[in-house]
Specification:
With about 170 residues, the chain is α+β, with helices and mostly antiparallel strands. It has helices spanning about 5-10, 110-120, 155-165, and strands at about 1-5, 15-20, 30-35, 40-45, 50-65, 70-85, 100, 105. The structure holds zinc ion (ZN) (2 copies).
Amino acid sequence: MKKSIAGLMKEPGAREGFEFVMEDMPADEEYRILDPPRVSGEVVNAGNHLAVSAVVLTRIEGVCARCLDPVVYPMRIEFEDMFIRQGGAETESGESEFYPLTEDWLDLGQCAWEHIVSALPMQLLCAEDCPGLCPHCGADLKKGPCGCRVRETDPRLAVLARLGSEFV
Ligand SMILES: [Zn+2]
Ligand SMILES: [Zn+2]
């Protein structure tokens, strides 16, 4: 969504709200976007720069990193981006990052998409304590024990156990 800034640029303090739904989403290999992201917020002419603040709402679907079950993950992303005309007013020193204003419009769809991508989780879990799949038979351990009788001993624990018996 490209928003014209012609009106906003006229006077400091001017503000314009926006709300749009992102229809044409770039594909992401790992996740499916279930709901077209809804973006709402406002652009403020803050004197020497334009400040965009917005909220993105969407839901994505992926698979649990442990048991491979599908997981639906709701996302709510708040972001703020600042734009400044190149060669314009001086940039205040600080942590904030300014993007150059090169056109008479802001590509708010692009801003929102970048924030969605950086907010995507590294991995999804169907539950924090998902036990995953049995490494021996592949059974989904969430549904109960699989009956495998292999006793797994953590090598570090085995060392401790040996040390323990030596010091008795
Ligand atoms: Zn899981
Ligand atoms: Zn098993």
